[in-house]
């Protein structure tokens, strides 16, 4: 498998304003199409739990079920999966609900623009 770390770091910075200087402390699931990075999911895991840090599907590959496939890959490995999502990210909220995630808490005014963070969890 080709190393996509530099491309993932650049996409994280461009799309989320976050900058991973080192991905070695994270697990990364990727999907490629024609040897090009199409989608990725970054997470951390402890024992039988995982916490999603980031999910991204390149625009050219959206609406093809790639995010669902990424989540299926890790749902087979862990008993519980946690994530947070901006309250105004309706596409992500719909996807997570479809995948069986439920809201367990809300952090009001969490993000720099005062949007709330919705904390979600999936359990086997």
Tell me the layout of helices and strands:
Layout: H1 5-16, E1 27-33, E2 36-46, E3 49-57, H2 66-75, E4 80-86, H3 90-98, E5 102-107, E6 117-123
Parallel strand pairs: 3-4
Antiparallel strand pairs: 1-2, 2-3, 4-6, 5-6
Q: Could you characterize what this model shows?
A:
The chain is of the alpha+beta class and 124 residues long. It has one domain (5-123): Gcn5-related N-acetyltransferase (GNAT) (Aminopeptidase), CATH 3.40.630. It contains three helices and six strands, in the order αβββαβαββ. The chain has helices at residues 5-16, 66-75, 90-98; strands at 27-33, 36-46, 49-57, 80-86, 102-107, 117-123. A six-stranded mixed β-sheet has the order 1-2-3-4-6-5, sandwiched between helices. The protein starts with a helix and ends with a strand.
Tell me briefly what this model is.
With 124 residues, the chain is of the alpha+beta class.
List its salient traits.
25% helix; 124 residues; 38% strand; alpha+beta; globular; 6-stranded mixed β-sheet; Aminopeptidase
């Amino acid at each position: 498998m080709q190393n996509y770390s530099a491309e993932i770091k650049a996409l994280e910075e461009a799309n989320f304003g976050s900058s991973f200087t080192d991905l070695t402390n994270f697990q990364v699931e990727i999907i490629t199409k024609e040897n090009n990075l199409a989608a990725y999911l970054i997470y951390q895991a402890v024992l039988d739990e995982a916490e999603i840090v980031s999910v991204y599907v390149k625009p050219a590959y959206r609406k093809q079920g790639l995010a669902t496939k990424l989540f299926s890959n890790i749902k087979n490995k862990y008993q519980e999966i946690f994530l947070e999502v901006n309250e105004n990210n309706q596409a992500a909220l719909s996807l997570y609900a479809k995948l069986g995630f439920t809201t367990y808490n809300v952090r009001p005014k969490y993000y720099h623009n005062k949007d709330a963070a919705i904390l979600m969890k999936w359990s086997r």
